Amino acid sequence: MQEDNTPEIENDDLYEHHRFVATEGQVPLRVDKFLMNFIENATRNKIQQAAKAGNVLVNDIAVKPNYKVKPKDVVRVVLTYPPHENLLVAEDIPIDIVYEDDEVIVVNKRAGMVVHPGHGNYSGTLVNGLIHHIENLPKNSNERPGLVHRIDKDTSGLLVVAKTEYAMAHLSKQFFDRTTERLYYALVWGDIEEDEGTIEGNIGRSFKNRLQMDVFPEGEHGKHAVTHFKVLERLTYVTLVQCKLETGRTHQIRAHFKHIGHTLFNDERYGGNTILKGTTFTKYKQFVDNCFKVLPRQALHAKTLGFTHPTTGKFLKFDSEVPEDITACLEKWRTYSEHSKLEE
Fold this sequence. Notes:
By secondary structure, this protein is of the alpha+beta class.
C-alpha cells in the first residue's frame, strides 16, 4: 500500500473559489486538466501548485494533480482568502438607466463593461456601479447582487436587475420558464440562405478551447439551447439578423451561429475577427480591417427586453437603439454592397 502524502487541511479556514460537478459522461481525466477546461485564465502550473498545497478537493478530500476525475465527482478549489468577487466595492460608475421603480431597474449596458466581478475583472463592473446606486440589493444563488441574467462584456444592450428578494425570485422564475422576451441584433459572416430559421443544439464548454462554448448533440454534453432568427438585411458577405432567445445559455448566439457556419462579425473568441467570407483583393481586406476598427468587438446587441413586472403583473417591454459602433459598421457594409451591385 502506497503512503498518502496528500496534506491534511482544515476546511473551516478555507473559502470556496470554484465548484464543478463532473457530468455522467465524464471520461477519466486528470484533475489539473479538468480544471483547466473550466477556470478562465488559469495555467496548469498554478492548478498543480494549488493541488500540491491541498487546495483542490474532490468529494471533500484533497487530491494530487494526477487524480482522475470520474462521473459525478464534485471538484472544488478552496483558498485561504475569500474570492475577489465577494469583496464587492461600491463605485460611482455612470450607468445608463432606462427604467427604475421600487422592484426593478432596467439598464442599457455599454460594450466593454463587465456585468459582475470575476477572474481578472474586480472593479469597474456593472455590479460595482449598481451597489453604489442602490443599497442592499438582493443576492442570487451565486451571491451576485441583483442579477437574474447577464450579457457578455463586449455585448451591448438591455439587462433587468432585481431590487428586492421578491423581484429576484419572480424574475428568475420567468427566465427559467422562458416567459421573458429577448431580441438581439447580430451581424454575422456569410449570406444566410433562409430568411428565418431555428438553431437547436446543446451548449457546453468546448473540449478543445476552454474559453469557448460548443454545440453538442442532444444528451451528450451541455444544456438544451434554442435560438430563433430572422434575416433583416443581406449585405453581400455579411448578414444582419434578429435573434430571439428561447433559452439563455452562455455565449448562446455566438456558439450557435458559429455552429451553422456564420460566426459573428469581429467575434475574436470564436474566430470572427478574420476574413471568413469575401474576395482575396487587397482593397477588400483593407475595407474589412476598417470595419474591424470601427467595430472593435463582436457585432451583438441586446436590443429588446420584455418581462412581467413582479408586483403589478403588467408586461413591460423595452427597446434600445443600436449603438454607434454597430451602426457605423453597417453603413460601411451598405455602401460596399451598393458598389458591388453596380459593378456586377
